[in-house]
From TrEMBL:
UniProt pathway: Amino-acid biosynthesis; L-tryptophan biosynthesis; L-tryptophan from chorismate: step 3/5
Domain of life: Bacteria
The protein's name: N-(5'-phosphoribosyl)anthranilate isomerase
Gene from which the chain derives: trpF
EC number: 5.3.1.24
Reactions the enzyme catalyzes: N-(5-phospho-beta-D-ribosyl)anthranilate = 1-(2-carboxyphenylamino)-1-deoxy-D-ribulose 5-phosphate
The family this protein is said to belong to: Belongs to the TrpF family.
A Pfam cross-reference name: PRAI
Entry's Gene Ontology BP terms: L-tryptophan biosynthetic process
Entry keyword set: Amino-acid biosynthesis, Aromatic amino acid biosynthesis, Isomerase, Tryptophan biosynthesis
Alphabetized GO MF terms: phosphoribosylanthranilate isomerase activity
Domain N-(5'phosphoribosyl) anthranilate isomerase (PRAI): 9-216
Length: 221
């Protein structure tokens, strides 16, 4: 018999302790806290990330989203914020993940892969050897002003499904998920978790109705 767990939900772009409480109340397994980025709607100051991360109860995971790429800068960012997980939203150089691990052995590492075309499959397979989970998102790190997430756009879920089939790590799916499309996304990709920012917000604020409908849609899958 095959066991297919209901996907975990990560609510991203949490901007206050109150928003974190709301996300946890309705069942979030993780909250995302967005540090300095070249673009995106969810950025908050590092001091606020630290405050929110300290307020979130175990076993809810706290993800620091960092756009830093140098291990020393990533480690400094982590030490300013003290989450239990680091979400690396940009590509790192070879050896960088190992350097972070050596310094922060208790901290989980999640690498974002921007799914633009089938090249994402090889990128995912390479990164998978060095991290605890992958997060498949929309975006374009090759633009002059990098677009590293928070786009509100979906991508080609068939490519994400191919990655999920080939990678033996937890896969989070992100990018333009909403209460209306998350069921189809789960059916297509079969992710371990789903991750959402704009789809549960209204004018930048967490929207209770959308949040409830998002969880209901995930649970009815
Ligand atoms: O939200 C941001 O500001 C952001 C900026 C840079 C990288 C990632 C960011 N957020 C992440 O993007 C995904 C998808 O967002 P959306 O649901 O498409 O709006 C979100 O889950 C965050 O992990």
């Amino acid at each position: 018999m095959e066991f297919t767990p209901i996907p975990r939900v990560k609510i991203c772009c949490i901007s206050t302790v109150e928003e974190a409480r709301l996300a946890v109340k309705y069942g979030a397994a993780a909250v995302g806290l967005v540090g300095p980025m070249p673009s995106g709607p969810g950025i908050i100051p590092d001091e606020r990330i630290r405050e929110i991360a300290a307020a979130v109860p175990p076993p809810v995971a706290t993800f620091l989203l960092t756009s830093e790429v140098e291990p020393v800068r990533i480690i400094e960012h982590y030490r300013r914020t003290r989450t239990n997980t680091i979400q690396l939203v940009d590509r790192l150089a070879p050896g960088a993940h190992q350097a972070i691990r050596a310094e922060l052995p208790g901290v989980k590492l999640v690498q974002v892969i921007h799914v633009q075309d089938e090249g994402a499959i090889a990128e995912a397979l390479e990164a998978a050897a060095h991290v605890d989970a992958l997060l498949l998102d929309s975006g374009n790190p090759n633009l002059a002003v990098k677009e590293l997430g928070g786009t509100g756009r979906i991508h080609n879920w068939e490519i994400s499904a191919a990655i999920r089939r080939q990678v033996a790590l937890p896969i989070f799916l992100a990018g333009g998920l909403t209460p209306e499309n998350v069921g189809q996304a789960i059916a297509t990709v079969g992710p371990f978790g789903v991750d959402v920012c704009s789809g549960v917000r209204n004018q930048g604020k967490l929207d209770l109705g959308r949040l409830k409908r998002f969880f209901a849609a995930v649970r009815s899958e």
